[in-house]
């Protein structure tokens, strides 16, 4: 019950969103059945977004602990607005505008007046989105495992060996490029170039954001006298959220072609991800459950491979979400077992107090 207060705004947004969805259903059909149909779709989309993005919340919390309290608040306010409205509304419009060579206003009109054509254009762009997002997320996951300073290993036989290769420059990039070429051979000949180019853009985007983040945060370090994530970490999290949202946005079109219904459903889910992020940060859950973060990055790695696979075969979004949830659940259970056998290590400062102490030194 103590955790419920973290979800207060999520519950409010859920109530407002579902009521708005019901109104849209009634306004469009004029029937009780139509009203409940749209209401149900909004609820399903919210659950889909939560299941696909729980690992996103864990990674967000991990990055937020490196940020100053000011930038934490900025991400949890402005960042969530960008995530909900930018990625769930503007991003699909930009994709359609580029693919159809029309302006954003025309794309909005297309979404309202010709939702079937709007959906078709979005689905045609799925290959590029899957290759771009899959590559970016794969680099995010591999950057966690290819770390020579990483001391805690969940699947020790794998992670201990992988961390040894971290000292080899470009090891994770080589892994991604090899996997990219393997899947490129499986894609239809007419789409090989599109897949490869989109994947390369995903790789370049990750490297650019990573370098930019280091430069910006180094500048911030020089100003405040301590290495604290600021604008660089903020930009990293925004691009990361964008990559996570690709799958949910595309998958939503399997349930409805109405842009506004998709926005409501995914927006509700995004609010729960925000609430989970805040709870993980303030309660120090990542420190309490030592393998939870590992599970999240394994789930991200699996999601990235699935996004590559979607360029060849259809993978149900429900399976994608459940798979990630299972991996994280196993990691949580492993953490609980570890804590039971090592109770002395559980005692220690929480993430919240650690963050506050670090912030207090400035």
TrEMBL record:
Transmembrane regions listed in the UniProt entry: 7-26, 32-54, 75-105, 125-146, 166-187, 193-212, 219-237, 249-274, 295-313, 319-338
UniProt keyword annotation of Transmembrane present: yes
InterPro entries hit by this protein: DUF475 (IPR007427)
Keywords from the named record: Membrane, Transmembrane, Transmembrane helix
Keyword Signal: no
Name this polypeptide is given: DUF475 domain-containing protein
Organism: Aurantimonas aggregata
Taxonomic placement: Bacteria, Pseudomonadati, Pseudomonadota, Alphaproteobacteria, Hyphomicrobiales
């Amino acid at each position: 019950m103590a955790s419920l207060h973290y979800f207060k705004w999520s519950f409010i947004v859920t109530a407002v969103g579902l009521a708005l969805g019901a109104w849209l259903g009634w306004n469009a059909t004029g029937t009780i059945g139509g009203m409940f149909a749209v209401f149900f779709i909004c609820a399903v989309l919210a659950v889909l977004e939560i299941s696909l993005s729980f690992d996103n919340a864990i990674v967000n919390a991990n990055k937020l602990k490196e940020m100053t309290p000011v930038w934490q608040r900025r991400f949890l306010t402005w960042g969530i607005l960008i995530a909900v409205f930018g990625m769930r509304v503007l991003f699909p419009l930009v994709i359609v505008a580029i693919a159809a060579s029309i302006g954003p206003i025309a794309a909005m009109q297309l979404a309202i007046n010709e939702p079937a054509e709007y959906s078709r254009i979005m689905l045609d762009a799925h290959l590029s989105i899957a290759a771009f997002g899959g590559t970016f997320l794969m680099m995010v996951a591999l950057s966690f495992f290819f770390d020579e300073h990483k001391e805690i290993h969940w699947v020790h036989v794998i992670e201990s060996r992988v961390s040894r290769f971290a000292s080899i420059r470009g090891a994770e990039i080589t892994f991604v490029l090899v996997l990219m070429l393997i899947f490129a051979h499986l894609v239809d000949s007419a789409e090989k170039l599109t897949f490869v180019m989109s994947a390369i853009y995903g790789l370049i985007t990750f490297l650019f954001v990573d370098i930019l983040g280091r430069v910006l945060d180094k500048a911030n370090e020089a100003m405040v006298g301590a290495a604290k994530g600021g604008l660089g970490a903020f930009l990293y999290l925004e691009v990361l959220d964008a990559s996570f949202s690709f799958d949910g946005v595309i998958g939503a079109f399997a349930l409805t072609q109405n842009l506004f219904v998709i926005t409501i459903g995914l927006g509700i889910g995004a609010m729960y991800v925000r609430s989970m992020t805040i709870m993980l940060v303030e309660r120090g859950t990542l420190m309490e459950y030592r393998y939870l973060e590992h599970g999240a990055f394994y789930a991200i790695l699996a999601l990235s491979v699935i996004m590559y696979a979607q360029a060849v075969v259809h993978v149900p979004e429900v399976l994608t979400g459940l798979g990630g949830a299972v991996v994280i659940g196993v990691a949580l259970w492993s953490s609980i077992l570890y804590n039971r056998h090592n109770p002395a290590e559980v005692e220690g400062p929480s993430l919240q107090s650690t963050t506050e102490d670090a912030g207090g030194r400035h």
